[in-house]
Amino acid sequence: MYTKDPFFAVKEEVEQNFANATTIFQSWSRIYNTVASRNNEELQRTEEELTGMLQNVGMDLDDLEETINIL
């Protein structure tokens, strides 16, 4: 049975989450530049989503570092 190398599994997850964060940041930037107030609901929701995604990327990087240390 083939098992995927843990390094590459975590690396792929980091790359995917980073790509998602980049997309969310682009949306946030577009919204930020078009709304009159930082209290805009869509801006706040996108900001929360971006913050959560960046936290996920941080945790994934920690996992990647742990995997490297194990190897």
Automatic annotation (TrEMBL):
Transmembrane regions: none
Protein transport keyword on record: yes
InterPro entries found in the cross-reference section: SNARE, Syntaxin-6/10/61_N
Segments forming domain Syntaxin 6/10/61 N-terminal: 5-70
Topology of this chain in the membrane: Single-pass type IV membrane protein
Gene Ontology cellular-component terms listed: endomembrane system; membrane
Pfam families referenced in this protein's UniProt entry, alphabetically: STX6_10_61_N (PF09177)
Sorted UniProt keywords: Protein transport, Transport
Protein name, as recorded: 5252_t:CDS:1
Species of the source: Paraglomus occultum
